[in-house]
Design a protein that fits this description.
Hypothetical protein af1432; Rossmann fold; alpha/beta; 2 domains; binds fe (iii) ion; 407 residues; six-stranded parallel beta sheet; 55% helix
Amino acid sequence: MERIGIYGGTFNPPHLGHMEAACQAMKVLKLDRLLLIPDRIAPHKKMPADSASGQDRLAMLSLAAAKFPGIEVSDLELRRNGPSYTYETVEQLRTQYPQAELYLLMGTDMFLCFSAWKRWETLLKQTCLGVLYRGDPGEQQAVEQQRVALQKKGARIELVKNQAIPTSSTELRRLLVFRCAGELLSPGVLQYIEAHGLYGTGRDYRKLPMEALEQVVVSLLKESRVAHVLGCRDTAVELAKRWGADVADAARAGLLHDITKALDGPVQLLVCRAYGVELDEFSRENPKTLHALTGSLVAERIFGENPAVVAAIRSHTTGKPAMNPLEKIIYVADYMEPNRDFPGVERLRELAFSDLDGALRLGLEMTLDMLRRQRREISPASQEAVQYLYQQDDKSAACDRKEQELC
Ligand code: FE
Ligand code: FE
């Protein structure tokens, strides 16, 4: 009996993680063929504004699948009207391949909410479920529970362990704007995207006017981070007015300071590789702090920001010795913007408008304190920043003594 895999999704865009999962399913489930089926309208999620059309997604998928024997691309769902319900796709394939055993592939997120799918019980009768899972301790228990629950309903389930490249199409779309998605896409797919200017790749992001910059930044952030970033921008502007720094630079640095924060550790490292940046040991081992570096690179190379803005973004998480006023402002604004809420934030807010150095020092000390309590490593830049401030204090105390002696 022919064994056919069905792998549906938005594929917006298709990336190497999809292809790796498809190959793994071919092997583990011993499939004779695997159909990649881009949906027309996903029933469970809204497509983002900059999405590629169905025809473009189909064309990219064909390019991605070209060199894999047994993997085919189907426009079955694109040819249907309305939301792309899987039960309709399976009905069509049942008619087309009446003798075949159908394997419906899905990731763990879809598997865990399978009972919410339209006509899921019919799907269980007509297909065997192939669950692509990484086997993380976190997901193992939930997957096992769902497996037992669905088996009671007559489900046939095969787990396909898959150490897939940890990425998503959402992340890929960000990386395309940052021009470093090459490692995660088939060369043909990348060429197609660039040739057709998909996902904003055809746009020039340099020196955007403030409103346009805000729009782009918001589209690249996780939704949960937007309020923080806008709060940091507004606070930076207030502080720039108070301390006589360039207000436009403060606004732009505030807007862009967390531009790469949505990327997780391995992807931060990928951005550094793509931009040809050598990392020190601390950064390699603590990729979470890298968003300040990668953010500054993106601000410089993609958004064409000036060196002052780039430098302020660069030092916003760790600080550094001898910071200039704009750098201090972004560091402090990030710490105290209105959405921040932690013991000591009020003191920081007061100091920021009366003694900027004092606020910077308090911020650095609080960070170091927290890292020590959590037994986490402290970055050399933060240590140097604090030492520098203490040395400055010693110097001014010595000057005061000298002045007193002269009097
Ligand atoms: Fe940050
Ligand atoms: Fe931030």
